[in-house]
Design goal:
single chain; alpha+beta
């Protein structure tokens, strides 16, 4: 049985409507080694994200917030379109990065039900 606190925490770890973190993570794992997904990462996602990295860190991991931390974000697609970003941390940096990722206009994924996991290990 879920308590109110558990339900509240589960809702806090989501930024959008759609899948829960566990299901999104499962789909990200499913496509981790898929050749079509690997090609998408190299040809679409990497060129899409690289120019955004400096602005993302300036916005979410400013010098006043810099400390060692580790968390994951999972970007999910539904019916071939961006659906949501889930995170495994409620740290303000993770929340900010998830919210920023949710603002992006992601490239069309390699599969309609695709999900991509981003592991972030940050240190000052």
């Amino acid at each position: 049985m879920l308590t109110t606190t558990a339900v509240t925490l589960a809702l806090m770890f989501q930024s959008g409507s759609g899948l829960a973190y566990g299901e999104a993570l499962s789909r990200a794992d499913k496509y981790k080694d898929d050749p079509k997904s690997q090609e998408w990462r190299q040809q679409k996602m990497d060129p899409f994200l690289k120019p955004k990295t400096t602005a993302l860190f300036d916005r979410c991991y400013s010098s006043s917030l810099r400390r060692r931390m580790s968390f994951s974000l999972v970007v999910s697609f539904k019916d071939g379109k961006f659906d949501r970003v889930d995170r495994d941390s409620e740290d303000q940096v993770a929340v900010c990065m998830a919210e920023t990722f949710a603002e992006y206009k992601w490239p069309t994924p390699p599969h309609p039900d695709f999900a991509e996991k981003f592991n972030l290990d940050l240190a000052p």
